Amino acid sequence: MNSETTETAEAEVVTDITESVNVDMWQTIEEMNPEALTIPGMEDAIVGVMERCGQPTILVYSVTRCVELLVEQHGMDYDGAVDHFRYNVVGAWLGPNTPGFLYRFDRVDSTE
To answer: How far is the C-alpha of 2 from the C-alpha of 77, rounded, in Å?
Structure first.
C-alpha cells in the first residue's frame, strides 16, 4: 500500500468515526445525563463530556471555539467576545448540570 492510499484510508476512517460521533453524540449525552445543560448556538464548540465523582456528567466546550463562534455569529471583536464569554457564559452557574469549559494546552516536547 503506498502512502497516498494509506492517507486516503486513514481519512475515510476518521470521517466515519466523526460522522458516527456526531450522530451518536446527542443520544450518548441524553443517556449519560438527560439534564445536562447546553449553550444554544454553541453546539460546534462541544468537545466531549466530563464525568466527576458524585456529580452528574456534564458537557464540555472548547473555550477557543466558543469565542470564535461569538465573533462569527454575533459580530463581536475578539476582546469583546472574550469578555462576554468570561462574564456571561463561564460566569453563569446554573447548578450541577452547568457545562464545563476546556482551555487546551498544547504539549511541548521537552527534548527540544
So the answer is: 46
What is the dihedral angle through the alpha carbons of 49, 52, 54, 59, rounded to the nearest 10 degrees? -20
Please state the domain extents for the chain.
1-32, 34-112
Average pLDDT over the chain, rounded to whole? 83
Other Cβ atoms within 10 Å of 92 Cβ, number: 11
Beta-ladder partners of 46 = 61
Taking a C-beta distance cutoff of 8 angstroms, is the pair 59, 99 a contact?
yes
Assessment of whether the complete model's pTM goes beyond 0.85: no
Please list, in sequence order, all residues whose beta carbon lies within 8 angstroms of the beta carbon of residue 37, skipping any fewer than 6 positions away: 58, 59, 94, 95, 97, 98, 99
Percent of the chain beyond pLDDT 70?
76
DSSP of 71-88: HHHH---HHHHHHHIIII
